[in-house]
Amino acid sequence: MVNVLLVDDEQIERDGLQLILERHFNNLVVHQARNGGMAIELAEQFRPDLVFMDIQMPGISGLEAIERLRAAHPSAKFILVTAFASFEYAQQAVKLGVNDYIVKPSKIAEIVKTVQGVLDQINQEQRSSEEIRQNQDTIKKAMAIFETDVVTQLLFDHVHEIHLHQLVELLGIPITEDKFVMSLLLPKDAAKSYSAVKEIVRKTGSGWTGALNGRQIPIIVFREAGRSFRQQAISLANKILSLREHTQAEWFIGIGSVYKPIEKIKQSYQESILATRNDQQPVKYQFYSDLPSLTLDLFAHSYKAYEQTFYSYLHHQHWDQLIKEVDTIIEKLERENQTVIQAQKQLAEILWLLSSILADMGIAVELSVYSSQVTDYKQLRAETAYMLQRMKDTQEEYNLQTDGDIIEQIKQYIIEHAHEDLSLELISREAGLSPIYMSKLFKEKLGINYISFLTECRLEKAKKLMRDSEKSMKEISIDIGYHDPNYFSKVFKKAFHMSPTDYRKQRLS
Length: 509
Hints:
Residues 3-119 form the Response regulatory domain. By secondary structure, this protein is an alpha/beta fold. The protein has helices at 11-24, 36-46, 62-72, 87-95, 108-156, 161-171, 194-204, 229-241, 265-274, 303-315, 319-335, 340-360, 377-401, 406-417, 424-431, 435-446, 450-465, 473-479, 485-496, 500-508, and strands at residues 2-7, 28-33, 50-54, 77-82, 100-103, 179-185, 207-209, 216-222, 252-255, 285-287. The strands form 2 sheets. It has a 5-stranded parallel beta sheet with strand order 2-1-3-4-5, with helices on both faces. Strands 7-8-6-9-10 form a 5-stranded mixed beta sheet, with helices on both faces. Helix 2 (36-46) runs parallel beside helix 3, helix 10 (303-315) packs across helix 12 and helix 12 (340-360) packs parallel to helix 13 (377-401). The longest helix has 49 residues, at 108-156. The model has no long low-confidence stretch (mean pLDDT 81).
């Protein structure tokens, strides 16, 4: 509908014009004002799209009213209604941006023609505004997808250099020198809170939220000037925790240390995960730097060395070797006369580490907890063996549910939907896998990450479309899934060592 305001000090003139408009146009909502002052007040209430303005009125003149309305409502259109078609008025009207004029008296056909011309402009602008709004909505949705992909690439080493650079530019949040990671641990029933968490982080303007992985959400946070690291982290943690319902006390946030190089962000992520291992605390966040020193140094190995060893065992499903390694650790602890409580603490950290690695592989296991009644090494061995067996059974069950041809299904899905805004999260949801596990599986089976495969599909389609000399590069870019032709050109040039335009000329010649 188009809002119309008729401004004239003569009631009969207003009523006559309204009658003509309502008889010839069916999409107008007409309001009347008897002078310029009333017109300005009414315009604030319903924001007119089109104003018919008489020039000669008591009080505020028509031209002065137009000037003030134009300033308050710049998109409004104006038709001057006057009995004085003089050059002086015409000059002022042009300066004020009046769209057209009607001279009193005018024939009905002339009035309708004039109004139709201005309405066509309004309709065209409204269509353009709607198109812009839809594009902005699309970009906003795409940004959310880009954000989770960037976080995944940074934290899990699935980096495709040119894409990462472009995605970071698109997100529009400057990468500060100092950065750290927070990991939010949610209860099983709180997955619906993901969007709210993402919105809170977005409003801070200083963080990126990763994909929900099992019960855990990673958040990369960039240091703000003028605030200490701890102040910023606690403030964001409290905002996130404020989303909890009364029954959701299990929410917990681990906070990693600050690092400068972007490549070190994975280390902060690992620290943030470790900081969530003791989530039964009154304060529902924990800084890694405040944790007691890790005790996983049984054979003078670093935590990283243990992580790599256990990851290798779990990845290749070498459970016999893993169980043997854990038995060796228990024997060493007993031989060194460690108390059962001390040994239990170290084994709990090992079990926690195994659970975390399995979760990264897409296999959700319940966090293992020892009985508080463990009193001797015999019971410790039995409970440890039981929890390891549960993890083994969970992994085997998961692998049975995952078809051997899952990669072919993923490939086919990417090929068929390459022109869409595909993301790791969307593809993994189609495959029924976690984003992290799907990405690792894809790379291990094909030797290429999913972004590179998606890029190949898009570029092959682009090469075919270039045979059509009628299609512009912008159209081809959009057809294959790139909204930015400049970005498409960079990706194409990196792959084929020539610009799309040069490639097309070569093909067509």
